[in-house]
Amino acid sequence: MKIVHISDLHLKKFYNGDLPIEITKELIEDVWKSFYEVSKYINKISADIVLIAGDVYEREFFNMSDMNRFLEIIKSIDAKVFISCGNHDYLDDDSLWNRVELPKNLYVFTNEFSYVDLEDLGARIFGISYDSFKFNKILEEPQLSHEHKNILVIHSDLKDDRYLPLSKDFLNKFSYVALGHIHKRQKVMDRVFYSGSIEPHSFKDTGDRGIIIYDTDKDEIEFKDFSSKDFVTLEYEISKDDSLQEILREVQKLLDDGNLYRIKLKGKHKNHSQISEFLNSNLDAYYFEIIDEVKNDLDIYEVFRDDYLVKNFLESFDDTESLAKNLAIEYLLEQYNGI
Ligand SMILES: [Mn+2]
Fold it and tell me: pLDDT value at position 338?
């Protein structure tokens, strides 16, 4: 039996920060595209079960036409699909789930901890949906079956009381646990995984994004990447003798097409005040932002060599006041550079 584990699609999630609206829209569309690609892949590998461990969508922004779009993709999947809703798509009376007819191959778990048996596959699938943004419930003992593989799909932060924390003893009872909530893919213990989100949603979301495939016959776990764009944070150390053109050329080399970059500039340079402006107007990338941490490479005594007032001022600091002195130097050089 092949199980595909997906979580944290966060369909219709708006980027939490400062991105141009066109890019925000593209990022939202990317998640749809990736999920569509995942659906085709599920059929290609003839998976038997798909487990979606919550946060399928953002409740605030997900409307009926989004729901229908989602269900069309689900219908195209040959496998049986199980969803346990999480804290962003929690299931209550107002949920869109109550207003649609579910496809035959989809089961959405209720707010009670329960299970569904799949006799043809010899599997018992356990799950539970959140009923509000915070959800902390003591789960009763699972009614494990000896004739079935007992599998759990659930949205949980293992250490946070607000998001259905679970003990290792509890997790250990199952043949596989598909966890959702944490966006970074990780193994919690044998056959207990967070699959992570299928697309990154911020500069904090580094690393590959995708789905987990668990083959129960071979007892093999496989990860497959589906993300279309990466959020990349990189550092570039400026050499003090580089020209602006050289800096531009070197930074440009670090950027690939289609990713989003946060570029931290480090080092010292005498034109430090011009570098980020120059890069902002000349770098070519889908999206980038610059964090300018370049320090001044000017010698204060050289800059103010004829200014006795400044020289006397700097000499007035004693050895215990080096911190204040450095701040004063930094300030004077910034004034000199006209920042
Ligand atoms: Mn969550």
Answer: 66
The rounded Å distance from CA 204 to ligand 1 centre is: 15
d(CA 76, CA 181): 25
Q: How far is the CA of 83 from the centre of ligand 1 (A)?
A: 13
Q: What is the pLDDT of residue 38?
A: 98
pLDDT in tens, 32-46: 999 999 999 999 999
Which one-letter DSSP state was computed for residue 182? -
Low-confidence ranges of the chain (pLDDT < 70): 337-339
The CATH number linked to 181 is 3.60.21.10
Tens-digit pLDDT profile for residues 154-180? 999 998 889 999 999 999 999 999 999
Taking every pair of Cα atoms in the chain, the longest distance, rounded to a whole number of angstroms, is 91
- Note down the domain range covering 267: 231-336
Expressed in angstroms and rounded, the spacing between residue 183 Cα and the centre of ligand 1 is 8
Pair (204, 91) in one structural domain? yes
Task: Write out the DSSP string of 253-286.
Answer: HTPPTT-EEEEEEEEEETTHHHHHHHHHHH---S
Predicted TM-score (pTM) of this structure: 0.85
CA atoms within 13 A on the CB side of 159: 2
Q: How far is CA 209 from CA 45, 178, 180, in A?
A: 19, 15, 13
Residues near ligand 1 ion, CB 5 Å cutoff: 55, 86-87, 181
Q: How many other C-beta atoms lie within 10 A of the C-beta of residue 140?
A: 9
Are 139 and 27 found together in one domain?
yes
- Given this model, what pLDDT does residue 15 score? 83
Query: So what's the pLDDT on residue 187?
Result: 96
- In the chain, the number of structural domains is 2
